[in-house]
Structures are given as structure tokens and as C-alpha cells.
Amino acid sequence: MGGGVERMISLQFMALLLSVNFVASVAEEREIYLVLVEGHPVAFHRGYPPSEDGRRVKPKSEVDKFHAEQLEDSHDQLLQRTLENGSYNRLHSFKHIVNGFAVHTTPSQARKLKAAPGVMLIERDRGAKLMTTYTPQFLGLPEVWTEEGGDKNAGEGIVIGFVDTGINPLHPSFAYDPVKPFSSNISHFSGACETGPRFPASSCNGKIVSARFFSAGAEAAATLNTSVDFLSPFDAVGHGSHVASTAAGNALVPVVADGFFYGQASGMAPRARIAVYKAVYPTVGTLTDVISAIDQATRDGVDILSLSVGPDEVPEDTLTFLSLFDIVMLFARRAGVFVVQAAGNHGPDPSTVLSYSPWTVGAAASGTDRSFPGSLLLGNGEKVGGVGLSGPTFGNGLFLYKLVLAKDAVKINGTFPRTPQYIEECQYPEAFEYNAVQGSVVICTFSAGFFNQTSTLTAIIDTARTLGFMGFILVANPTYGDFIAEPIPFAVPAIMIPSIISLYYEQQTNRDERGFVTKFCARAAIGDGRVASFKGVEPIVSRFSARGPDFIDTKKNPADVLKPDILAPGHQVWAAWSPISALDPMLKGYNFALLSGTSMAAPHIAGIAALIKQYNPFWTPSMIASAISTTATKYDSKGELIMAEGYNIGNLSPSTPFDLGAGLVSPTHAMDPGLVLFSGYDDYISFLCSLPNIDPDTIKASTGEFCNHSLSHPADLNLPSVTISALAETQLVRRTVKNVGFRPETYLCSVLPPNGTMVSLYPSWFNISPQGTQDLDIHINVTKAMNAFSFGEIVLTGSLNHIVRIPLSVLPISISL
């Protein structure tokens, strides 16, 4: 009897467990995982030797095709023998520069896969986000173009790949002019033109030489909206078109918005070809699609890869350098591709960079000396500054109009919610008394609706048009932080201002005993906000631009690598756009947009790298990166140290290498740097093996390489900068330079030591022949322990007027006894 009861209880308990497990498995949602497996990818499986320019021999043979098929079969076999049937969906196989795949499955199945033989690395897909004309002149590029044969030749023969939201093929920035045929072949490149909605085969016109799209990750992660998530290379967002035209858009394209001519736009390398790899959609972006795009771009043979997209958070459970995204970029560099990343837009907080690794170039953002100031003229003669790309109120300031505060014009007995959207944010026309606002300048207030992102400027414009506003003012509200506004094209006269104008308004407004307005006497006019002003000191590091120091883990322990690497224009950049503008209704219908972000800085560097590659076709990516870095300037237009924006408006402080890297890019000097520092794939592996407390098995699992050689210290990687995150007593660091000039040159070595250190150089001077190399020993001794990094630089001054700058960033923690 007892045994029967026990057996019944046991069966009930087992049934309960099965039920719980079943419910758990049902409740477990699928996610996307990125997986690296053992075995060489196609590009490296036969040990292709590097050519002179570092590019691997392009795999084209039947043997290579067979190897690719074998890899894909092996991925399927691994999944079939490891995971339950029906529990997963393989989304994509990575075969060219890494051996791996993306799979859509549950966390419990992913844990099984992690333990499977042959699996090196598995990582959850963290998603991919966007890092959101005058700049060629600002950077002195016309001078470079003249040396290269003018803008008609700048970038000839170079292919820049863009992993982004696609491209608008009908835009004039990407048109092909048969009267000006390309003179250089691109036989090293072989892409394809994938067609689909809004992207016929004719879109690949010779300027656009290849266009592909990757959507397996996006389709697994979300339900796509067929009205905007086009399964083709077409850009419904605008971001990809903006980035591509900044780097390689045609020269002298008229920029027109709302019928106003803003000048002519040119890409940095207007004769470079464009290869498009769409991997981010209006609804969603995944690392699966981004990595698939990078793998394909490298296989196609792009020279430069511009990444203004990427993960928007720190990697989980791994070092920043060893995330799968960074490993893929390492192998793209190994294949000879110059990779530039947007540094990120989470500044000015420290350690916010999203570009971590020494094998990529991370671009920070700055402004230029161009701005678009708007103005509001009040009836008392006061002039208030603001922004807004709109025309003036009728009369261009000669006539003043009735000034009305939105909440003073709201219907008293209206049947609508008394929320900020109705009362003060001008979102709904039905909230207002028509006679009060018609023909008036209406003051709308930034309030809770805007803060919660439920209110929009588009709705204000619709209200203004419906009720016949003469114009509107959007006034900042200090309750919701300080005022940061970018110039936005308004179809009606409008301005965004930081100032509270309530004193003047109240003095000129008559009210009854209940507080209701009986007469509006205040007057105002909106000035033209579309006319550019070229004043002030520039560049200034933009507040949003992500900052260093670089870090190696989620605890943000600092790394011995300088990030960001370089500063480029990224604030208020005019470039191509897509009229659909799926993510920004304000720009719907526009062919150009004025945007800010490190997304805009990265393609500046990509285009400049293309010019350098054209002029120096045998340079490796690290040589190009060095030329860009060592010739940058840390001084502004007045010869003072470049300043950086801080937390508060108008709060500027002298920039450090953690704000701007080596400084503002100088294309003219980067074309002829005199000396370059160089490093290759094996050096990067040695760097990884020298990281503090690193397990060699971790390096093997991430890269497939054994730690047969490590550097004595991570700072010994031959970068065009020196960063030491914890300097105890003394350290010797070595750098090796190469003369890329055509004549022998003598260099004098000097140093500005960081505070708390004494730095000596050996040799103090040297002669170097063309293509010759020279070691430079850098002895750094701590003279005083510091609580924060301090900065200096090494300057190598050549007899032929070359100047090579190497930034020093050091945290001295203890002195020798």
C-alpha cells in the first residue's frame, strides 16, 4: 500500500516536472546567436600569402567554392547533431573571413551549442543601431584634389563599402555621367547588383558598382513592415545615403531644401566607387546582418569599409576586443581592408566609445566654422538667437505679428484632454481658438510630450498650416534639461530658442481677473534661419561625441589603446537623403539632410582613406591609419588647443586625446606623412595574448590562433600613439617607423612628457633612407603618482618638413623607491 502511494506520488511529481519543463520551454523565447566554429574560412584556408598592399589573393577557384560549400554543410551538420529538431533556424553562414553562422534558437538550446565540440565562441546578437557639403573646403580637400588631378579624379579606382541602411539610387550624388567615364578599372572588385522593391538592375550604374541586402537577422528578430522595410538595397531611412555621399558622393551637387539653395555638396573622394551592403532596416537592425554584410564586402574586394552602424552596448561576458563583431573586423583587416567605425554618440561621459580595437579607426565628431543661426525679433527691440532652417515671417522682420502663448489660445470649453500635448505643445489644431492664432506667431513649449517622445515637430507644423499661423516658436523648458537643438528644415517660418520670453510677453498681454487674455499686445517676427554664418573658433569636439579612455570589459577597466583615433567633421553635415525618411517624418520628401553624429564623422575618414589609398596603392591599412593619425592637428583655427564641449551649454575645456584621438584629420598632410608606423595580423594576435590576466585558450577560442608570441606589454603594439593605463615606476616602449618618402631624411626627436612622468627617447635623432625603418625606444619613468591620466606627445621633425606626432596618454600609479 505504502509502495503504491509512493509510486503514485513519484509519478505525479514526474508529471509535474514534465509539465513545468514543458511550460518553461513554451515560454522560452527565441533569440539570435552568433557562433564561431573551428576551421579556416575561405579567405585563409590555404594560407594565401599577403600581396604588397596587404590584400589576400582573392579566392575565385573551384576549390574555394567547394570549400565554402563544405563549410556551410558543416554548420548544418553541427546544428543537426547538437540541437533538437525544429528548435532552431540557421539564418546565415559566415564563410569568407570567419567560419561561423547565425542561428535563431532558445537560450537553452544555445547553451547546448556552446558546449558542442568544434564551437569556439557563441554570443547573443546585441542588435545594431545607427550612430547618427561644406566639409571638403573645411578640411582643405580641394588642395588635395588639385594634386590628384582635381575632383574629376579624386578617389579613382578605389571601392568604398558601406554597411548601413542602403542607398537612394536616384539621388544625383550617385549618378553616373557618361561624359565623364571612370578611367581606372576595379578588377580587384567583383560585387553583384541585387534587385527588389524600388531598386531595379539599372541602379548599379557604374558609380554604384555593387548593391546587396541582408535581412535574415531582421526577419527573425521582428515582423517587418513591408511599406518601409524593403527587401532590396533601397534606403528607406536616408542614413545610408547620407553616409555614402559624405565619403564618395559626386562633386558639386546642388543642395536644395524647401526651394532654398544651400550650396554644393561633394564627397571626400568624389570619384571613388560605391558598394552598398544594406543591413539595417527601419524596424530593426541585427549584428547577424551587419556581420554577414562585412563578410560579403570583404569577399567582394572593397578597399575601404565604412561602418556608421554597430552594437550600441558593451559586449556581454567577454573582452571588448574579443566580441564577435570586433573579431570579424580583425579578419577584415587581415584581408587588407581599411575599416573605420563611428566612435559612438554617448559623450561627453568618459569611456563611452564603441570603437575599441586597435585594428579599426574610431572617428570622433566635431563642428566646423559654419552654423545656421536663427533669430527672433521682439516688439521691444530685443533679438533672441535660436535655430531653424526656415524662411522668415512675411516682410523679413519689417513687419511684426501678434505673439500668442499656446495655452492662452486654447478653447476654454473644449472637449479634449487637458494634457501638455493639447495645452502647450501645439500638437492638435482642435485645441485652439482659430481667431486667436490665425496670422499670429505662436509660442509652443517643449514639455512632457516631447520629453516622452510622443509629441513631434511635424505635428506642430501640421497645426500651424491648418490654423494659418504666421510662424511658431518652440521654447525650451529647463525642467527637462538644457537646450540642445539642431537646425531642422521647417516648411513654415519657425525657430527653436532656449530663452524664456515670458517677461516681455506678460508685460504686453492684457488679462481679466480670472487670468484669461483679453488682448494680445506682444509682437514678434522670425528671421531667416537658412543663411550660413562662418564665425567662431573651430573645430570644437561635439558634446555627443563618445570619449575615451578605451576599456577592455563591462567594468570599463581602461585599455592600453587610444580611442577615439581621430577627429572629423560630424556636426551639421549636409548630404544625400531618402525622401521616404521612414524614421524621421520631419525630413519626409527631402533629398538632402543636415545631420549630426559620429555616423557623419566616419565617412569623412573613409573618403580620405580612399584618397590616400589611390595615391599610395601599396600601403597597408595600418600605414593609412598611421598617416591619418600622425599628421592630425590638435590646434584650432586660432592656433589654440582644440576645445571640447562638456555637459552644460557653453562649457568648453581643452580637449585631450580621449576626446579627439590624435586630433583633427588633415588630408593634405596625410597624403605625404614622411614616416608611418605599421602593424599586421600577427602583431594584433600578439597584442591580444599580452592582455593582463588573459587565458591563451580564450584567444584560441576567439581567433583560432595559439599564443606562441606575446608582447612584453600591450602598449608595445606598434600603434601611432602610446597609451599606458597603469604605469608603475618605469616602462620601456618601442615604436618602429618606416620612411615612405622618396628621399633620405633626418629626424630630430623631441618629447612633451605627461605630468608625473619623465620621458627619454633613443635615438634623439636619426637618418632614414627611403623604405628604411628605424626603432625608437621610449623610456617612461614615474616622477609622481597621479589619480588620473595625463597627456603629452612625441614629435619627430624631419629635415624635409615632415612632422610626425605620437600622442602619449599615461596614468602614473607609483614611483620607483
TrEMBL record:
Q: Where is this protein found?
A: Secreted
Domain Inhibitor I9 stretches:
67-130
**Keywords, ordered alphabetically:** Glycoprotein, Hydrolase, Protease, Secreted, Serine protease, Signal
**Record bears the keyword DNA repair:** no
Instruction: Report the Pfam families cross-referenced here.
Output: fn3_6 (PF17766), Inhibitor_I9 (PF05922), Peptidase_S8 (PF00082)
- Active site, per annotation: D164, H239, S599
Q: Which InterPro entries match?
A: Peptidase_S8/S53_dom (IPR000209), Peptidase_S8/S53_dom_sf (IPR036852), Peptidase_S8_Asp-AS (IPR023827), Peptidase_S8_His-AS (IPR022398), Peptidase_S8_Ser-AS (IPR023828), Peptidase_S8_subtilisin-rel (IPR015500), Peptidases_S8_3 (IPR034197), S8pro/Inhibitor_I9 (IPR010259)
Per its record, what are the GO molecular function terms?
serine-type endopeptidase activity
One GO CC term, this protein: extracellular region
Which residues does the UniProt record annotate as the domain Peptidase S8/S53? 155-638
Q: Where mainly located? A: secreted
What does UniProt give as the signal peptide span? Answer: 1-25
Q: Where is the Subtilisin-like protease fibronectin type-III domain?
A: 716-810
Cite the PANTHER family for this sequence: PROPROTEIN CONVERTASE SUBTILISIN/KEXIN (PTHR10795)
In the record, the note on similarity to other proteins reads:
Belongs to the peptidase S8 family.
Q: What's the name of the protein?
A: Subtilisin-like protease SBT2.4
**Natural source organism:** Carpinus fangiana
Organism lineage reads as: Eukaryota, Viridiplantae, Streptophyta, Embryophyta, Tracheophyta
